[in-house]
Specification:
With 209 residues, the protein is mainly α. It has two domains: 123 residues, no CATH class; 85 residues, no CATH class. Helices cover 71% and strands 0% of the residues. It is built from ten helices and no strands. Helix 7 packs antiparallel against helix 8.
Amino acid sequence: MLKISFVIIASYLIGSISPSIILGKFLKGIDIREHGSGNAGSTNTFRVLGKWAGITVFLIDIFKGYLTVKFVSPLAWEGPVISSTLIAILSGFATVSGHVWTVFHSFRGGKGVNTAAGVLLALIPIPTILSAGIFLIMMLTTRYVSLSSILSSLSLPVILIIQRQRRIDVPFELIIFTIIIPVFIIYTHRTNIKRLMSGEENKIKLGRG
């Protein structure tokens, strides 16, 4: 249990590292949570700090999730009570929680989409790539990042259930986790949902438009 506790704490602390907040202070001397949409994530970084800062935040946030699942969770040994898959899930969830409620920045971070994508990419790469395709299609169609994030996350349990029906080995814990993830994403996007319903949600600019 001690090693599992270490993995969860380490994953949470890694998730708590917020590149958007750090870059905001380093590049412009601002708290990015006080500008744009007020979110410490890659989309708001694009708007406030520019393209390259946004890309940097996007990649680091994904890498955080991938790193903890691939390299931190194996530090805890599986046993008769807990499997390596469940340890990886707990590690990933701790990382996303750290991103959303960062201990280093007054427990106010981002919405967890990119970090969750990194976690899922390490756990279930093919379904995650398919879900990313759905995200891209929705974003190009609607230009709403929030709506695209929610719909792509909802596609994950559907993809896994289809795989299981086709007799592909999918651990039951992963299906439960992919049901929890969209619930978590919807919760962190609750203000976006209100803006979507009122027609006030910002659309992302694509290309030069």
